[in-house]
Design goal:
The structure is a homodimer. Chain A is an alpha/beta fold. Chain A contains eight helices and 16 strands. The longest helix of chain A has 22 residues, at 81-102. The interface between A and B is large, with 87 and 86 residues.
Chain lengths: 365, 365
């Protein structure tokens, strides 16, 4: 009954040469991308890759090692909140430890990693109760301890409760010293699935964190459908943008959106999705099932990408990224060079006012 | 020695159910997309599709029928200009006639359809000699005659020579009455392949032509790498954006960029590429080969897409589009609803000035 990934299907049925050509189209030029193999743990998969830069003289590669973790909830969604959180903490502690053993410098968890994605119920309780303070809440304290212990940066997407009891969908970025470097709130909240009942659009911009391991940004789930949002991370100088997500159903554009953005802006994109089956018992008595499909993957600034993790199993996607590939793509392909921001600025200003006249041409009668 | 399309490969090797799953991921939800079959002419292929809107009460479908033509040059590239043009005219006259027979209301030709794509030589002559006046040049006169004869709109991408002998990469949009409705100049000129030696960035915006058959925009080739450009067509109300192109080599993002843009902005995108092999004899005595890979396809506003035309043969991609699917996606998915232009306008204004301070967060030392 498992949904097989298309990689598994292609691998099984295509002869070697045909598989190579299909992969070239699906995953881009693989010259700078090597597969380093897999490891199977008892309860999750590990897949390993390396992105190299274009060969260059006299320059030392600037390598950052990252791990994207996709995981499922552990207990049924109607169990006490503390129990559910603790069981997820246990699993994540192990997976972060493993990521560190692999050599990761930066670890990213999926959207709302510490809870079931109960917003699909459109019921306020108990889901609002999962929200935490970003600096001293139990999830951040837990992540701080692991970041310091392993000397790694950790991106921890949770629901934030602020001083005024307003909720936000927020990623906490914790430094390798175990301190909160800052937060990034979700900029675009969907209006078609219940989420906008719980939290609102962030106003903190598209921050780039200049970490020990490279300049990174975080943009949460639905934000990836807004091209202007991806662009701001490029303007702010990001080399890696993480996209923690909770995405389900027949979302066939997942495999291409992060890749398009990576190519358009010459940065790496790490698309990290939840996985597993979450069952909710609604007040009406009905049952609601949320089934995020995993498929975590990484796309390079040259449009090449890794295969996806499983659609049903937990996993760690580990990759070594030469960050200089960003600079090299900007220099050789030059999409940044032809951006023409000045040309757009007035149109955008008009378009966001009530004076906007769309540029429409009609035939003279 | 032909390069096979990945569709041909998948069709040959995958069992029926596996093919269905792979196609769902590669081409999106096919619920609203039907394949109407193919026709093989002596020298080119015809593929036919229909995009329907979501079932709705009491509304008449708003159908526009389009044809995207991909073709190769006819004579060797060193033959007299007039001869080369005339042979292409002959071929195109036949293909437009066939498109009209199929029922097309709007026909789009590829970038610089009336000439070899000599800009890859980086030599000025004779390529500049192909430029024409957009209103009364021989190519526009030819297109006007066909548009009027068949009562169809034709998008004719050529090199424009203006009154001051400045060249532009321009699409002429001709109405079903055979008059020039207006032009759209290429907004973003690549700086990595020679093109910027010949013509410069257009200043005419992202026009939407409110034709008898729907609101259409045209954005030429490299423009598709700039997300801010796609967005402006959405703000101006486009229902179909045509992307005539001259794209070659290992460009594995071609299959996903038009699809990403269509989904992000809830409009149809018709990606029309040149095809064939063009050999150029350089002044240095060397030979330069340009080999655009065809692969013309159409993506719907819901992220579904047709398969691609051949990578090597001429072809017509015909499709019936229910334009109401744009409105329906805007209403149900609501990506336009969460665009937040006001939130971006000041950042863009800053980013296009020399006062821009990127939003970078560093650890306190």
């Amino acid at each position: 009954m498992e949904t097989r990934s298309i990689d598994d299907i292609l691998q099984e049925f295509l002869p070697k040469n045909e598989l190579k050509e299909v992969n070239r189209i699906l995953y881009g030029d693989q010259t700078n991308l090597s597969y380093l193999g897999s490891e199977e743990q008892f309860s999750y998969d590990i897949e390993k890759y390396r992105f190299t830069a274009i060969t260059k003289n006299e320059q030392v590669p600037r390598i950052t090692k990252i791990a994207a973790i996709q995981h499922s909830v552990v207990l049924p969604t109607d169990r006490p909140i503390q129990d559910q959180k603790l069981q997820i903490f246990k699993k994540i502690e192990h997976m972060i430890e493993k990521s560190s053993e692999l050599g990761a410098n930066i670890v990213c968890l999926p959207e709302c990693w510490n809870m079931p994605f109960g917003f699909v119920t459109r019921e306020k309780m108990p889901w609002c109760e999962y929200a935490e303070d970003c600096n001293n809440g139990p999830s951040t304290m837990f992540i701080k301890r692991l970041a310091q212990k392993h000397a790694i940066v950790i991106i921890s997407p949770i629901i934030e409760r602020d001083n005024a009891d307003l909720l936000w969908n927020t990623s906490v970025v914790v430094s390798e010293c175990g301190t909160v470097l800052g937060t990034q709130r979700k900029n675009h909240i969907p209006t078609n699935n219940g989420e906008s009942d719980y939290y609102t659009h962030g106003m903190s911009g598209q921050r780039v964190f200049d970490t020990k391991f490279g300049k990174i940004g975080v943009t949460i789930c639905f934000d990836r459908h807004q091209p202007q949002n991806w662009l701001m991370y490029a303007l702010n100088g990001a080399e890696i943008v993480f996209n923690p997500a909770a995405t389900s159903a027949t979302d066939s554009w997942w495999p291409i959106e992060a890749r398009s953005a990576a190519f358009d802006h010459s940065y790496y994109v790490v698309a990290v999705n939840r996985v597993g089956i979450e069952k909710f018992h609604l007040e009406s008595g009905a049952e609601k099932i949320f089934k995020p499909f995993g498929s975590t993957y990484i796309s390079g600034p040259n449009g090449s990408r890794t295969k996806s993790l499983s659609t049903v199993r937990d996993g760690i996607l580990y990759a070594e990224l030469d960050l200089d590939l960003c600079k090299q793509m900007r220099e050789t392909l030059g999409l940044n060079q032809s951006r023409r921001l000045l040309y757009y600025k007035n149109k955008w200003t008009e378009a966001s006012s009530n004076k906007f006249l769309p540029q429409i041409i009609q035939k003279l009668q």
